[in-house]
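User:
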Amino acid sequence: MTELFHLLQSSSYAFITTCAVLGLMVGSFLNVVIHRLPKMMELGWQHQCAELNGDVSLEQTEKTSTAPVYNLITPRSACPHCNHLISAWENIPIVSYLLLRGRCRGCSATISPRYPIIEAISGSLCAYAAWHFGFGWAAVGAILLIWALLTLTAIDFDTQLLPDDITLPLLWTGLLFNISGVYTSLHNAVLGAVIGYLALWSVYWLFKLVTGKEGMGYGDFKLLAALGAWMGWEMLPLIILLSSLVGAIVGITLMIVLKHGRNIPIPFGPYLAGGGLIALFWGQTLTQEYLQLLSAP
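Assistant: Predicted structure:
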């Protein structure tokens, strides 16, 4: 173990390769989280509503306690069409999808290309984080942030939800990393969390007072607060600007190309995540170039 640690520390190639492979493997698990976490949340809400309404009898409670376990580990992954259990060789990131030609081995049903795409994005971003930050805690934190933001992006696209099970631990993790100033000072991180939440919270209530409609969800507040905890309050204007620009471009494109109606909600979380990643890797550079542009005669 010590030899491996020294190898990763001394060889950037070994470190980048290891992070890429780890990113591919964890990307496969992220697909499970993306698929199952919303369903787990829905089951929990149904049970809570039944309890509040007094609809849970002793018999129903016993029935629930003996129901099959459903979480991120159990049951084993299977084809949703024929229930064919996915073997280990069918679960190799990207490779299995190519070998199976994008089809289930049991029933030949089409496998969504999202699975290899998530794996490829995870592996690529983890490798880039390893190259960008080098061996150390900054790379470790960046990889954790990448996995969380990638999962939140996919879930938000599917359900317009940003689960507290991810956003809140992400916020606290950002503060923990910055206790020793990995990305910014703890002072700036705490301010980033507070200002990040209040910024979108204020926009939400202003929009609601003016239009009577809800423009975004509370999950967006928490996600920006988490990004502020990781990168500090100074990065918040850049994150909001980048996410707004990307969101506007994508939204206009959807309306023009796909005839996406204005009344159809477009999740903002993925654009916040994208803006956060850009700020993580290039935020300082972009800010400096912008300030130099303003100071130029």
